[in-house]
Design a protein that fits this description.
5-stranded antiparallel beta sheet; 4 helices
Length: 159
């Protein structure tokens, strides 16, 4: 079990963020493709091409994990009007954060048996750890409930 992490997460001061975007995602697996497309469009607008592929891969894994592990089985129909998963992208001058909010209080669990390269699942957080500069999660307080799992990417300074 992973403890909530905050190290490496940029300050949440809205004035420090140069750009931010978010989208609600429905409780169905097609949302992974929608999240990737949203990420591609947004990062293209922000001209953050140096981490483009890494960020899209990590977003896919974070959204898949939220859909697979953080939603009750009955969530598909009940959540069509109020999507339970939300993708947030935040851009600072030299940092990008991809964060996925879900309704579960359960901490993400990284599997230790990633030696099986032929496995079709169970490597999501390993990939997030491998392709981002840091990642973590924290529980949400107040009426929102749930948690946010985030990944940070360092960006090349603009020339």
């Amino acid at each position: 079990m992973l403890e909530p992490l905050r190290q490496g997460l940029p300050p949440l001061d809205p004035a420090a963020v140069s750009s931010a975007a978010s989208c609600a995602l429905p409780a169905r697996y097609e949302a992974v493709r929608e999240a990737r497309q949203f990420t591609r469009r947004t990062l293209d607008q922000w001209d953050t091409g140096d981490r483009f592929d890494d960020a899209c891969l990590v977003v896919s894994e974070l959204v898949t994990n939220a859909l697979r592990h953080a939603l009750p089985a009955s969530a598909t129909r009940a959540c069509e009007q109020n999507p339970p998963v939300r993708l947030h992208l935040m851009h600072w001058t030299e940092r990008l954060v991809c964060a996925v909010r879900d309704p579960s209080q359960d901490s993400p669990v990284a599997r230790n048996d990633t030696d099986d390269c032929s496995a079709e699942s169970g490597r999501g957080l390993f990939l997030v750890d491998s392709f981002s500069d840091s990642w973590g999660w924290h529980p949400l307080a107040g009426t929102l409930g749930g948690k946010v799992v985030w990944a940070l990417f360092r960006l090349q300074p603009a020339e």
